[in-house]
Every structure is written in structure tokens, then in C-alpha cells.
Specification:
Length: 138
């Protein structure tokens, strides 16, 4: 890609981050290939990031906030649900009349890290840092 195309790519990253979409290297590779009108390699993406350290930054996000991860504990969940079910029986509450208000649900031992690419300017403004802490957002 030439400098103009690389600038276009950086603007693309900034726009998507402002829209709360955190590009992965795979997303960046696909978009770069479209702009270049030919397939770019994984190493090209890495080189692109190294050529623009003043504009780009990479960070890892997880599928769950670290504090939520610390609170997750199978034993605690089991105790909670045992208590919940005993109270439901005690008060005659039918399971069909219960709802999960927390749309994130329960993530026990289901976490992974994903490398994301940020516009350094947007990241330093802290506008979209919540998305990196917990990518399972509404």
C-alpha cells in the first residue's frame, strides 16, 4: 500500500473504534487486501503496525472483565443456585417465571484473549477502553 492508502487504513481503524468495533489483525488484513486489491500477508500487517507506532497500538482484550473473572467460581455458583432453587421451592416460584436480567449470563472458565488494534489517539482519550476490558457489551 502507498502512504495515502495506509492513511486511509488508519482512518478506518479510528472510525471503527469510535463505533465500538475493535479491529483484530484478521479484520485489518481483510480490509488491507481490499484497499490493495491483492492479498496482504500476516507479516505485512505486523510491519504496518511497526511503521506507525505514533498512530497505532495493540492491546489484548478478554471476553470477560478481570474483576468478573476473579468473582467467577464454580463452587460459589453452585452454592448460589442451590440457595436460589431452595427459595424458589419454599415460595412456590415456577422456573418458567424466572429471567436472566444480566444479559452477559454466566461465564465459568470460558475466557480467551484477543489481540486488538487501536488508534493510539483514540485509545489515549480513553473513549473506548471499556470495550477492551469487556468485549461482551450491548
Amino acid at each position: 500500500l502507498n502512504l495515502q492508502q495506509e492513511d486511509k487504513l488508519i482512518r478506518y481503524i479510528e472510525r471503527y473504534i469510535r463505533d465500538s468495533v475493535l479491529p483484530t489483525q484478521s479484520i485489518l488484513k481483510n480490509f488491507s487486501s481490499v484497499v490493495a486489491q491483492q492479498e496482504v500477508s500476516e507479516s505485512w500487517i505486523t510491519w504496518f503496525q511497526h511503521r506507525h507506532p505514533d498512530k497505532l497500538i495493540t492491546k489484548y482484550n478478554t471476553s470477560i472483565d478481570y474483576r468478573r473473572h476473579l468473582a467467577d467460581n464454580k463452587y460459589k455458583y453452585k452454592l448460589y443456585f442451590n440457595l436460589l432453587h431452595s427459595k424458589m421451592r419454599e415460595h412456590g416460584i415456577d422456573k418458567r417465571n424466572t429471567y436472566n436480567i444480566d444479559k452477559k449470563g454466566f461465564y465459568v472458565s470460558i475466557t480467551h484473549h484477543t489481540k486488538r488494534i487501536f488508534s493510539k489517539a483514540v485509545y489515549e482519550l480513553k473513549e473506548r477502553t471499556a470495550a477492551i476490558r469487556d468485549s461482551n457489551r450491548e
